[in-house]
Amino acid sequence: MDTQRSEYLLRLLSKAASQCESDRGAALLLLREAQAHLWRLSPDEPLSSAMQLERQLSLPLESWLPESVRFDYTGPLLASGISTQTCNEMLLELDVHQLWEEIQSIVREVRDLCQVISKGDELYRRFRRFLIENAVIDPVRAASVFIPLGRDLDDFYEPIPEHLAHNGKLYQCPECRWPMNPQRREVQCDSAWCREKSSLYRWMQGRLINVVTDQVLEGEAAGKRHMLKSALWKYTLLPGLLELQLAEKLSKHGLDVTLWPDVDRSDLRVTYGGMTLDIDAKVWISPRALGAYLESMRPTTMRWFVIPDYQQAHVPWLRSVCPGLQVFTQSECIKELTTRANPF
User: Fold this and answer.
1) CB atoms within 10 A of CB 245
2) I need a labelling partner for 138 at 20 to 30 A (CA). Which of 63, 84, 131, 273 fits?
């Protein structure tokens, strides 16, 4: 029951943060409901008002929300009054089934078309790779990919909000190419995948400097470019980076690897020694939310689930809550398959 109540509280907080800029009245109503749930979960703590909760949304969750409640989520939900990508990812992960179905309805139509047209497998593979490699695009570039599939740019991309540009320039994460919010003094990609790869910056004397490497990140003209919709960034682009890395490294070890085989029956299909294995890559912020999702899975083929190396500590727990599933980190997956393919 507490787990369900914690999930509900996190939904309320993330939804409130997402509405603070556009509809503060609606946000405060959500926060009033959230304060009651927070008190039930932590009755020994002083009761916070809706206004106090609103201020706390700009603080890192780990600084004010009990660890037992926050489901491994960290960082602020608001920055300069604007919802962070962490907030957006929470919304996506906590409402995964509803939001995934919404975005999947379009992707499913593309997949269904590719299953019946000539060279559909090749077209679908090109479509998936395009989304992964183009977090931001000039609209004219999309025509050659989307027109053969009977889709429009607006199905997958949206105009870049003004607050993501600084003096007419975008500052894109070097890892995923997603626009970072330059209105903060501390600028970072809100994806843990990218932060682990040092996508962390700070404004210093008018330049955006990487706090790990001291390299300068140059802005690019925003123009009239579009950005990938957040659900596709979350469920297609980020895991796609892991998928492409896995495919490249496994291929270098001599394994036969196919990306998105049979028009997306899995993320990767690996063949070795007469055996075939399907792999799905998952890049989630919260292992608990991922565990709840994996528990609902009923794979019909031999299938492994692969998560980033930085979440290695969560593998035993994921295996315990999903005993019928095979869960590995990226490095574990590569090592295990390389050993199986080359046992001597």
Assistant:
1) 14
2) 84
Please give the pLDDT value at position 45: 76
What gap in Å lies between CA 229 and CA 241, rounded to an integer? 16
Label residue 48 by pLDDT band (50, 70, 90): confident
| Structure-token match 């490699």, residue found | 133
* Straight-line distance from the first to the last Cα atom of the chain, in angstroms, rounded to the nearest whole number: 51
**CA angle, residues 329, 230, 287, in degrees to nearest 5:** 30
95 pLDDT higher than 80: no
Token output for 72? 């491994």
Give the span between the Cα atoms of 344 and 337, in whole angstroms.
13
DSSP 227: E
Rounded to the nearest 10°, the torsion over CA 153, 157, 159, 162 is -170
CATH architecture of 231-341: 3-Layer(aba) Sandwich (3.40)
CA angle 71, 283, 259 (to 5 degrees): 160
Task: Report the pLDDT value the prediction gives residue 99, as an integer from 0 to 100.
Answer: 62
Do 337 and 255 meet the contact criterion of CB atoms below 8 Å apart? yes
